[in-house]
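> forwarded from #structure-qc
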């Protein structure tokens, strides 16, 4: 090839002869003058790829593909626009805008530290010690281990998904939606959004609790203080997020430092207790813990100046300060003792805190091991002086409250757009963060139980230790380290939630999977989700109104657990389906681990709160169904589609095991449509009838044929199937099924192919629905009705049922309703029960529901009509079909002259048509014969009259001499000429002298008699169903067959001709 090209290239251009002396191959674009072609010629010139030059437009070179893939940038959606908008605001218009920086965050700053910050939160500081005191060390350790195992298994599944290709911005929502499809993705995305939003409410409530209980307790005087202060803080945070997200991001490290310093202070305090335990005395009356406020000395009396005086504690429980005062009976019968709240890690208090101590609401916090004297009959007084349980506690409550403290594992994947190498950073950073936090949590459970007295652990708000934060009493150097640090960390976490949740909602909205959320995809010019932030703040206010950290925590636990469950499900499905695209770089995963994680998530949902779990599932299900019916269709190559393919293959293989039982038989319909020249459907009401027959059940294939060749007419076929009209019409008529367009050299073969190969395996059609060719008598439609008869023959040969609606345009649309009327069935021959089944199916649809069913059968002279009626009523009773029954007697009668005359006219017309309508091939052969004078000497004057209208030479001669007019005058001369030219066909005189065939006379007699009876009984019926006679075995009688059917149904408005498929389709057995 090089040798052949060299001379031409040197002669034309010359450049190929210069340079290194090696000739180059010419580019396929060398002769093009357009700029784009010149670029292409430069691109492919000298690539030694002339063999593929015709495919370069559609199949680019590997080098260009590799270049584009290597330069892929996974910047988060909208970040480029956001940075450009900020540059436009801050820079002068004349200055050139700086380029968008590529992602540069590594594992530590991009994944590990954000996960640490999101996982450690308000629960650790406000509820961890209380959980250990209530659940015991064993119970709390089990809760922590179970929750941390769930998040670790979820992180393993998430790592596998995240490393299976490039992860654009979108985090968990992107991974779930692209793995499980838009329905699951949208439902779980909304759940994750709601969980993040309620997490913001929980953090705000935690911050308010820290503020009002530990920092400024004097500000907690007003009614509904949590709701009022919470709303104020929420408004402030939403304003901060609205004004500038960059300030929130810059403060993130400060908040993270507060969390780490607080945790280090706790560990330092634990070490300090081993050396010198801090002094936090707790006052116990009998075995009940007293609120430390209101007294200064934990004693009833003290010795002072050689005298005994009462203390403030005495005055609280007695009516005076004197020793002879009347006191509370429990106070009088029990001693006051003081115990050390933080005995230290070496004190052995761990043994006392190993087991749980669950309390009812209003119970006293009692010290284990101390005896107390109490008269059960004496009513309790001064209960407000004791530390009481504020809620009823139980194991599942502790799980629901604690689980939010292990959420936040998605923080790294949510920043996937900012990571330098997301496939490496997300698994390492997330698993390392979970390992670190799990170690801290599990060690904290043991250390809290080993260092702190049980009654102090169970004291949720530190009322027995002077109102100090319980975990703060353990911290070193001061409790304020924990209080201030936890306050700022909860505020930061709340800001992060209010920042992340609107962006998640914006991502869902921009995916257009939930139509009514489209408005929340809009925002400011720089991409900030203004409307989404407003909705987030509104939902967050619901959590603030609840005003209880313990009540809000299980709510967000539900939504996070559901999200984690579907992450595990996505990984398990992808692994089990073994889709070719499932090639994660993270190899330490297994489908069993994913299923275990999914099972844990589902179990924890119902352990935390079964009613919240049901509500969350109902919300997710409603969103799923809404997206399924109203959402935009997305094809993301998700795992659910893989499941559908596997399930379909399995079901098809099962169907192949044998034919369906009669009880399972239903019409699986192949609808044969015909298209006009504009590729529009000619009989749209066929699909209306299909919908009324099927009601969305079973298989429906809508097929049509296009004349041509596949290579030349493929685009036309696609247009007919997709753009024009078949799919649109199916959607309009609500027909659930498949469309198939076949390209063939002629319509007959195309229809035959559809009947033969439609469907797949055991899911094939068993019924063909085709419209009656209403213009079959017209000469130009001669081919159409012959195709129709061939369809009848082929369905009979294939043992398929055939439905032929006549006057299809008169059939009702899906929007019409019949308020009364009858569906009449004329049961003449047994067809397997099709005539019984079809009216039943039609009456399931709202169009025909009000119509009553009548069944007519025909009795001959030898039949007992009374017994036939009884038998038919019994048969219908066993079939569970309600219908009126009537037996019509048809006695033998003489064949009338009208029957002879109609038969004779039919046969004469048939013979005339055979002589007049030549096929195209015969016309061509006749033209060839006329053009050869040696074979046929035919001299015809231009103005002469044609020999005969029935002669084959007439069309040929007419075609050869344009302008001639055909005369339809029958003369002897014309007959003689016709007979001379074609003696084998006979003359016209023979046609008029012919006698009718006796077989045809009998068939015409039957058709006329039946039509007479049907018209008498069913003229006003809304629909008439009757048996369709079979086609003639001799193809010479096809015209007569159509005439018989026409006579049989003459005068009826809507007729459905039914031909059974040769098997029983209805049974009396259950």
């Amino acid at each position: 090839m090089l040798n052949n090209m060299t001379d031409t290239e040197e002669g034309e251009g010359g450049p190929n002869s210069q340079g290194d002396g090696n000739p180059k191959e010419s580019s396929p674009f060398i002769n093009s003058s357009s700029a784009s072609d010149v670029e292409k010629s430069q691109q492919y010139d000298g690539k030694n790829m002339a063999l593929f030059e015709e495919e370069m437009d559609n199949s680019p070179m590997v080098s260009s593909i590799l270049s584009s893939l290597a330069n892929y940038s996974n910047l988060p959606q909208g970040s480029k626009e956001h940075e450009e908008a900020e540059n436009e605001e801050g820079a002068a218009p004349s200055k050139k805008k700086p380029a968008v920086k590529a992602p540069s965050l590594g594992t530590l700053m991009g994944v590990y530290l954000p996960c640490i910050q999101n996982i450690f939160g308000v629960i650790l500081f406000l509820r961890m010690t209380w959980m250990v005191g209530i659940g015991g060390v064993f119970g709390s350790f089990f809760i922590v281990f179970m929750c941390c195992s769930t998040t670790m298994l979820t992180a393993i599944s998430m790592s596998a998904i995240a490393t299976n290709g490039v992860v654009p911005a979108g985090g968990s929502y992107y991974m779930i939606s692209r793995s499980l499809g838009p329905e699951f993705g949208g439902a779980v995305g909304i759940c994750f959004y709601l969980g993040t939003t309620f997490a913001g409410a929980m953090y705000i409530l935690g911050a308010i609790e820290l503020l009002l209980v530990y920092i400024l307790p004097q500000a907690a005087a007003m009614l509904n203080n949590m709701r009022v202060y919470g709303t104020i803080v929420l408004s402030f945070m939403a304003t901060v997020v609205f004004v500038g997200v960059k300030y929130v991001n810059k403060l993130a490290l400060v908040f993270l430092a507060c969390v780490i310093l607080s945790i280090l202070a706790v560990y330092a305090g634990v070490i300090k207790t081993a050396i010198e335990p801090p002094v936090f005395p707790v006052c116990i009356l009998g075995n009940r813990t007293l609120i430390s406020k209101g007294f200064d000395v934990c004693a009833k009396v003290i010795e002072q100046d050689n005298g005994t005086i009462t203390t403030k504690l005495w005055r609280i429980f007695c009516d005076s300060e004197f020793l002879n005062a009347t006191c509370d009976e429990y106070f009088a019968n029990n001693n006051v003792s003081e115990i050390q709240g933080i005995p230290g890690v070496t004190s052995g208090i761990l043994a006392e805190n190993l087991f749980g101590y669950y309390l009812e609401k209003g119970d006293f916090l009692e010290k284990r091991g101390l005896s107390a004297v109490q008269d059960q009959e004496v009513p309790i007084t001064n209960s407000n002086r004791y530390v009481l349980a504020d809620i009823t506690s139980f194991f599942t409550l502790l799980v629901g409250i604690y689980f939010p403290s292990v959420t936040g594992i998605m923080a790294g994947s949510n920043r996937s757009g900012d990571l330098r190498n997301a496939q490496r950073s997300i698994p390492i950073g997330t698993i390392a963060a979970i390992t670190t936090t799990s170690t801290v949590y599990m060690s904290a459970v043991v250390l809290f139980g080993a260092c702190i007295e049980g009654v102090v652990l169970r004291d949720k708000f530190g009322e027995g230790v002077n109102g100090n934060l319980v975990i703060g009493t353990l911290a070193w150097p001061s409790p304020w380290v924990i209080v201030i640090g936890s306050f700022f960390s909860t505020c930061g976490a709340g800001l992060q939630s209010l920042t992340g949740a609107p962006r998640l909602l914006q991502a869902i909205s921009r995916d257009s999977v939930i139509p009514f959320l489209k408005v929340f995809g809009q925002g400011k010019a720089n991409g900030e989700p203004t409307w989404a932030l407003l909705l987030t703040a509104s939902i967050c206010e619901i959590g603030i109104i609840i005003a209880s950290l313990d009540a809000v925590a299980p709510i967000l636990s539900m939504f996070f657990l559901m999200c984690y469950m579907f992450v595990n499900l996505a990984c398990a499905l992808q692994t089990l389906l073994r889709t070719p695209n499932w090639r994660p770089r993270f190899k330490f995963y297994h489908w069993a681990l994913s299923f275990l994680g999914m099972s844990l998530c589902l179990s924890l949902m119902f352990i935390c709160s079964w009613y919240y779990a049901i509500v969350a599932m109902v919300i997710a299900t409603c969103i799923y169904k809404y997206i399924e019916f109203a959402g935009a269709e997305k094809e993301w190559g998700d795992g659910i589609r893989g499941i559908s393919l596997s399930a379909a293959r399995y079901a098809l293989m099962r169907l192949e095991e044998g034919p369906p039982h009669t009880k399972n038989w239903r019409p699986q319909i192949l609808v044969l449509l015909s298209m006009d020249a504009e590729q529009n459907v000619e009989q749209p009401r066929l699909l209306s009838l299909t919908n009324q027959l099927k009601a969305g059940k079973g298989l429906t294939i809508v097929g049509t044929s296009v004349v041509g060749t596949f290579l030349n007419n493929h685009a036309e076929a696609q247009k007919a199937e997709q753009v024009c009209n078949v799919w649109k019409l199916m959607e309009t008529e609500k027909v659930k099924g498949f469309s198939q367009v076949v390209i063939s050299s002629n319509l007959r073969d195309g229809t035959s192919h559809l009947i033969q190969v439609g469907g797949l395996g055991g899911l094939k059609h068993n019924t063909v629905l085709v419209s009656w060719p209403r213009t079959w008598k017209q000469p130009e439609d001669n081919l159409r009705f012959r195709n129709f008869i061939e369809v009848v023959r082929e369905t009979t040969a294939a043992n398929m049922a055939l439905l032929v609606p006549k006057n299809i345009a008169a059939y009702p649309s899906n929007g019409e309703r019949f308020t009364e009327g009858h569906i009449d069935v004329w049961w003449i021959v047994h067809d397997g029960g099709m005539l019984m089944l079809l009216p039943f199916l039609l009456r399931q649809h709202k169009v025909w529901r009000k119509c009553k069913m009548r069944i007519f059968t025909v009795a001959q002279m030898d039949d007992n009509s009374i017994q036939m009626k009884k038998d038919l009523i019994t048969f219908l009773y066993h079939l569970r079909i309600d219908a009126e029954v009537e037996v019509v007697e048809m006695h033998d009668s003489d064949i009338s002259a009208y029957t002879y005359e109609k038969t004779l006219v039919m046969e004469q017309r048939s013979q005339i048509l055979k002589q007049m309508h030549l096929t195209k091939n015969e016309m061509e052969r006749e033209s060839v014969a006329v053009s050869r004078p040696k074979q046929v000497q035919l001299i015809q004057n231009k103005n002469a009259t044609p020999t005969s209208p029935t002669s084959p030479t007439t069309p040929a001669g007419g075609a050869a001499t344009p302008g001639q007019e055909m005369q339809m005058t029958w003369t002897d001369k014309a007959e003689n000429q016709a007979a001379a030219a074609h003696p084998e066909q006979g003359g016209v005189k023979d046609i008029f002298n012919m006698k009718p065939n006796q077989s045809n006379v009998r068939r015409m007699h039957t058709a006329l008699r039946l039509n007479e009876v049907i018209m008498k009984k069913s003229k006003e019926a809304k629909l008439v169903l009757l048996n369709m006679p079979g086609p003639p075995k001799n193809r010479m009688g096809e015209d007569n067959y159509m005439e018989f059917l026409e006579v049989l149904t003459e005068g009826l408005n809507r007729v459905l001709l039914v031909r059974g498929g040769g098997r029983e389709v209805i049974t009396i057995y259950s």
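QC bot note: The longest helix spans residues 171-215. Confidence is low (pLDDT under 50) at residues 1-42, 71-100, 926-989.
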